[in-house]
Design a protein that fits this description.
- The chain is of the alpha+beta class and about 190 residues long.
- It folds into two domains: about 1-35 and about 45-95, no CATH class; about 95-185, Immunoglobulin-like, CATH 2.60.40.1930.
- The chain contains three helices and twelve strands; from the N terminus they run ββββαααββββββββ.
- The strands form three sheets. Strands 1-4-3-2 form a four-stranded antiparallel beta sheet, with no helix packed on it.
- Helix 1 packs across helix 2 (about 70-75) and helix 1 packs across helix 3 (about 85-95).
């Protein structure tokens, strides 16, 4: 990969040059990269699905650039070599993770807290909590709120419930492109 330094003929040019090279602009830098040859390449297992995931991420990045509100969301996360498009693209590819939770203070009464630590490569925008009885009926569901500590969320019970054997707590974390992380926890009353 060759780096262009001061060649005024190539200053604002990007794209394919013949069938051999292409120019790529990354921030203020410009690179001359040889075109890949895929003539004898056979797709491996999962490669087609991964290419489709990447295409969806590229489309999401393009949509973000066209939407001023979405672009403004990703602006604080950009770097010199990573524009909003690239940040949005990686956000679409990488789902959030629920790192830990604390349900020790929740006994089924309203106002009792459930703490959740959820992370993402960009930002977790929503965390939900659902209490499900053993029969499968939803007893309550709602959104957690950010506590002010990094990546920490808290959900306060809204109703009083008799926690029976088999009651489950479902925690979900979402990032801006609506990727989801989910944890199902058995609750013992």
């Amino acid at each position: 990969m060759a780096k262009n330094k001061g060649n005024i003929l190539l200053k604002n040019f990007s794209g394919k040059i013949c069938d051999l090279f292409y120019l790529k602009n990354v921030g203020e830098d410009q690179y001359l990269i040889p075109n890949p040859s895929r003539k004898r390449h056979k797709k491996k297992e999962g490669e087609a699905e991964n290419q489709n995931r990447f295409k969806r991420a590229q489309k999401y990045g393009s949509l973000v650039i066209k939407n001023p509100e979405a672009k403004a969301f990703y602006t604080p996360f950009r770097t010199a070599k990573k524009a909003e498009y690239h940040v949005a693209q990686s956000d679409k590819l990488i789902p959030p993770v629920i790192d830990s939770y604390d349900i020790s203070g929740y006994k089924g009464l309203s106002g009792q807290a459930i703490f959740i630590i959820a992370t993402d490569n960009v930002k977790v925008v929503e965390v939900t909590c659902t209490v499900i009885c053993p029969a499968g009926k939803i007893l309550e569901t709602g959104r957690a709120v950010e506590t002010g500590f990094i990546n920490q969320w808290v959900y306060y019970g809204q109703k009083d419930h008799q926690l029976e054997e088999g009651t489950r707590l479902v925690l979900q974390a979402f990032d801006r492109p609506r990727n989801k992380a989910e944890v199902i926890i058995p609750v013992i009353g």
